[in-house]
Every structure is written in C-alpha cells, then in structure tokens.
Amino acid sequence: MADLPTRALTRGFRLAAVPAGFVGRRALGLGKRLGGRPAEVIAEEVQARTAEQLFSVLGQLKGGAMKGGQWLSAMEAALPEQLAGPYGEALTKLQEAAPAMPVRTVHQVLAEQLGRDWRSRFVEFDDQPSAAASIGQVHHAVWRDGREVAVKVQYPHAGEALATDLRQLDRLVPVLRMAAPGIDAGDLFSELTARIMTEVDYEQEADAQAAFADVFRDDPDFRVPDVVDVAAHVLVSEWVDGSSVAQIARRGTKAERDRAGLLLCRFLLSSPPRVGRLHGDPHPGNFRLLHDGRLAVVDFGSTLAMPAGWSPRLAALLRAGRDRDADRLIEVANAAGLVRGGEVTAEALLDLVEPLLEPLRNERFTFTRAWMRGLTTRFSDPRSVISRTQRRLHTPVRYLLVQRVAAGTTGVLCLLGASVPLSAEAAEWVPGLDHGDD
Fold it and tell me: Structure pTM?
C-alpha cells in the first residue's frame, strides 16, 4: 500500500497524456496540412490515433477510468458522424477487452479469496481472460460439478484505483467535449463517481444477481446466470455464450437488432415491478443475445432498490408529457419537487420534454443516430431557453440513476437502430401510464 501515492501520480500522468496527445496531434496535423496533405485525411488520422490512445490509457488504468469509458460507449450514438467510427470502435473495445493482469496475480487473488486449494473447486481454469470488466477480468472455467462458469477476478487494489481514477477523470473533459460537445462532461463524471464506488463489493453484486436470477428463472425472454460462488473480490457465475449487444449493433441483422432493442426495454422496464430493483448499468457489453433469441444479462454491479416498482407519479408525468397536457405536467412536476412555483412555466416544461417523449407517441419507434444527435444539438446550447429550463429543474438524488439508465438505454437503442413498440412495453410495466387516477 505504500506505493499508492506513486501509482496515483502515474495514473494521473497517463490520463493527462490523452488531451496532451490530442493537442500534439492537432499541431502535427496542421504541419502536414501546410505540407500539402488533405485536411480531411489528416483529421481522420488525428481522430483515429486519439481514439486508440483513449482505449489504451483507459484500458491500462482500468478502474473508474475504464468504467467511465464503458458507460460512454453507450452514448456513442450522440457523436457526430465523422467521429462515430474511430471513437465507437475504441469505446467498444473497452466493453470486452483490456490489457490482462499477469497470471501470477490472478492466482494470488484466487488463493487469497477462495483459499490456497482454490484449484480443487475447478475441473478446468483458463488462465487467459475471456473478457474485461471495469474493475476485474473474467475467466472461463469448469466448476467441480461440470458446469461452465465465468470467474470474475477483481484487480488488486481496485477500490483505491477506482477512487483515484474518478478524481482524475476531469482530465478527459476536453477530449469528451471535442467528441460530443452536447454532453456535460463535468456533471456526467460527478454522477458516475457517486454510483460507481458501490460496484467494488462483489458480495453485494452477487446478492443482486441472485435476486434477478430467481425471478427470471425459466423466463422465455431472459437469461440471468446463477451465482455459483462468491468472495469479496471473486465472483463465480454460470457461463453464457452469445453476441454482445455491441456486436449486434455493428454486425447483426435488422431482426436481431430489433429483437435486442425490444428485450433490452422489456428487461429494464419489467425489473422494478418483478424484482423490486432496477438494473443500473445499461452499457452494451452487459447484455448478450443468445442463439435461442433470449437476452442474457451478465453484470449486476450497479442496481437500484425499487421495492414498490415504478412510482405512480412517474406514470402521471409521462402521460401528461406524452399527451402534451402542459397544465397537468407542471402540476405533477410541482408535486414531485422537480420544479418550484414560478421558476418554470408549463409551456417551457412541455417544450423541454416534448422530443424526449416522442417514442411513447408511436406504435413503433425507430431509434436512430440522427434522432439522438438532434436531441444532443437541441440540449447543447447553454444560452437557449431549453438550457435555462433545465437549470431550473430540481432533480432528487434518488432519480439520478433512473436518468442515467434512461439515457444509457436510449443511446444503446440508437446504436442498434432498433424499431421498438416502446409505448406498449411501457404501458404494460408502468402502472397508470395508459390511463390512471391522478
């Protein structure tokens, strides 16, 4: 532990190198352009190299920086078209791959967590990781009863690294602002910090996963792998194959992309009433489309307890906004504490939510990158009436994760280009959305 200050300093330098490298490449590009190379070619090279450095730095740091990159991958659809390619490819890598920790270190963690005889629990154990999680890496193995399992091994000192990275993430704000100027990077990272620190405890994650697995057992639409064994820094679950939603978004058929989008919405909407919890991390690497058409969910490090399911007040807000009932919308928002009397007019509030509720006004809605970028542009001007209305809203802390899930899910749906009957799904799982007593 004595070397933590040195490690923190090193990690800070690595993060600082990303915007510095970006500036250097811009200068180099200018020199090449003056030498006669086309500006478009130079710009593409700068973007591609910066994206690759982003992956390299975040992947090596793991912890909070990698987690932030994974979550940002869900928002790739908000990027301008000329940036979506290189940055999308780099961020997708963060969902399933990162530089692996040494085999000796993996064995050391397993011995510390499962006992010196940890090998006796497995028939087989693959020393090479099959995937990278934000604070650990996943190994394929065969449990002693013959079941294929995924063994998630947490990186040593992940908690300390997580806290350090989260404090340093503001160094990436200039890069994020160049990639997606409509995203408020400062607010985004502050919200991430509050939620991510809960994800270090694998025993807490195992409890959440077991709750979901019990409810969705034998479900025709979903597969939640059972927890096989758990310690503070090791989590063993049943293995699942299939294609990640990130892979489906890039290479899947239209039918596969629509299916993945539908099931993603159904899982997130149905979980609060069915499980009493909301899955809080809808980045594409956490969901896999199986060969039988079900959607598998493989990470439960972030969940929000919702024992009463969706609030009736949410249905009232959504219904008023969907139906363009400005007076009813401001009335419910006032009662929920979202606005204070006189600060926001009914018309301004309706104008704010108008495009966000468009998917609920259609029998089927196709989520597209163009639609997402339109929203980003609309909300990106800090001098606009929309932005002034946003600044006057008062969002209770308990709603922040719900907003993150809604934004992340929308980003994934736009990556998929999925056509989804969202209005029918929401009406089924959010009581009172179709009609209700207000």
Answer: 0.75
